[in-house]
């Protein structure tokens, strides 16, 4: 039902219109915010989640120095800023995208052997999503922008 692909300029208009609920905004960035950081950092790769060729979700894969503090594994990739636009939520798009992500990463980043991410401890829905996909709690805690985060990982 969904595909994931690298961001293309033709996705920009729809990504700029993404909306999240008020309670989701503290936990992630909107695509337009994340894309600005991608333009400034060559180690960030913007990824779009498509349903029927229309963007419904977005996240960033971050490599290199940006993963320090999340893992000591230099061959890991960090998942950042996952969001599903408000009208597309609750349809399983995030779950489908995260289930297909290991195959995507192996294809496009063959040296990567682990995916990592940080989940705010108050973001129960995100934690449940990542656990369903097979992410494991590393036991590492860190302080995020709005509070404590748990670091999760998935070996590839």
Automatic annotation (TrEMBL):
It comes from the Bacteria. It holds the Pfam family Acetyltransf_1. InterPro entries: Acyl_CoA_acyltransferase, GNAT_dom. This is Acetyltransferase (GNAT) family protein. One of its GO terms (molecular function) is acyltransferase activity, transferring groups other than amino-acyl groups. Transmembrane segments: none annotated. Keywords: Transferase. Residues 4-156 form the N-acetyltransferase domain. It comes from Melghirimyces algeriensis.
